[in-house]
TrEMBL record:
Name listed for the protein in its UniProt record: APG6 domain-containing protein
Domain of life: Eukaryota
Any coiled-coil regions, as ranges: 140-223
GO process annotations (BP): autophagosome assembly; cellular response to nitrogen starvation; late endosome to vacuole transport; mitophagy
Organism: Mesocestoides corti (Flatworm)
Amino acid sequence: MCQECADVLVNAQHQLLEFQKEEIASLETFLAQLKSLPLGSNEVDEASASSDEVFSASPESGQELQQASSDLVSPGLEQSSHSNHNSPQASSEPCISLNVETSDALAGGTNRPVPTFRCSTDGNSVTGNEDFDAATNSQLTKVHEELLSLQRELSSLQQESRILDKQIAMDTKELQRRQEELDRINNEYNEKRLMLFEVEEALAVLEARFEDARYQYDRLRQTNVLNAAFPIWYDGHIGIINGLHLGRLPNKPIGWPEINGALGQCAMLVTCLAKKLSHAFRNCVIIPMGNQSKIAALPNGSPLPLYNSTSAVWKFTSSR
């Protein structure tokens, strides 16, 4: 918007310069017409001096009028030129005078002389010049008011632009602050997320260990220790404990060392059952010693062997 105002002012300056050139050409034409009239020497000198003053004032006023707008046109110049060509000649002693009037023609508010011309013959005014003066003053007033309005608008836009620049600067700082805060929050979020992953991984490991421990516990709880330690089965008509036969048949002879080992396993199994069930034998006590286990009578009985040997058979038979 500010650039458009500047363009309007520049166009107004160019058009005002063209108007000044046209005005100077019209004044030269008017001066030539004045010189062609039969005037007295004093009047011609006065007119020449006035015209010189006009031409000398024109460049100075032209520098001040460069800020006018494009609405300024010069219809009055053409009207005055035609009126001068078509006006009747004066009497033998006409009276022609040049007057300089001032008007407020500049945007800066300074008053400069703006030349306006009146030509009178026998006291009768030329209406073309008066119309030109009125039109020129009206157009200058209009241009002045429009220029002031544009200047006020330009000042308002510049002030608004400064306010917007300050607002943009404040918003930029606020955006930068919030961006920094967002980055900080993102970093904290990433750190917490990493910690969460580590904790979840540790939790998964603990859960796996817990599942394995529970599986082992369930398996051990369902396991019978005595069945695992003393598996009992049979082989035909002969019982087996831990793979050791507890007897023999004529058709299937078993050696005494194996039978003695099987008897030792039986002694150990009975002792374990008694401890598990918190049972105490009243008349005897079993002494498990492998394939040489023994049994003793209570309260003071001597131990008797639970295995086959010469001495053991002798003791067993003698004790009976």
